[in-house]
Amino acid sequence: MHNLLVLGIAVGTASTTLTQSKIFRWLHGDERHAGLAERAHPWLGDLFNCAYCMGHWLAALTTALAWQHQDVFWFWAVVYWLAVTGIAALTSGLIGLLFSKQEDA
Fold first, then answer.
1. What is the Cα 35 distance to its own chain's centre?
2. DSSP characters for 48-97?
3. How many Cα atoms are found within 13 Å in the side-chain-facing hemisphere of 37?
4. Cα–Cα distance between 20 and 49 in angstroms, integer?
5. pLDDT tens figures, 20-62
6. With DSSP H G I counted as helix, E B as strand and the rest as coil, what are the percentages for the chain, rounded to 5?
7. How far is CA 92 from CA 29, 53, 59, in A?
8. Which three-class secondary structure state does DSSP give residue 17?
């Protein structure tokens, strides 16, 4: 359970950083300029502009890496993936809320 929480927070932080931070603006773009991802393919542009969408893919990747050496029923790997995605979405939303409060101050 502890690993699930840590992985979910890590995925949420990574997805928010990749899709919303200034340091990766060259990748995800902004209102005026298309980022590298969008110039490469419209689907990638959509992915790199949606923290929730990115969270699904990062959760799938990290779940696959975390479970690759475990002999488990596939159902639990899918449940783990979706749980990590949910925790990641909550983390990403909390980060967004905190940044919006900071900008308002």
1. 17
2. TT-HHHHHHHHHHHHHHHHHTTS---HHHHHHHHHHHHHHHHHHHHHHHH
3. 18
4. 7
5. 888 888 888 877 788 888 888 888 888 888 989 999 999 999 8
6. 80, 0, 20
7. 19, 11, 13
8. helix
102 CB burial (10 A radius; 0-12, 13-18, 19+): exposed
Query: Residue 9 in contact with residue 84, Cβ under 8 Å?
Result: no
- CA–CA separation, 88 vs 86, rounded Å? 5
Structure tokens at 74: 């596939």
Question: Residue ranges per domain, the chain?
Answer: 2-20+51-104
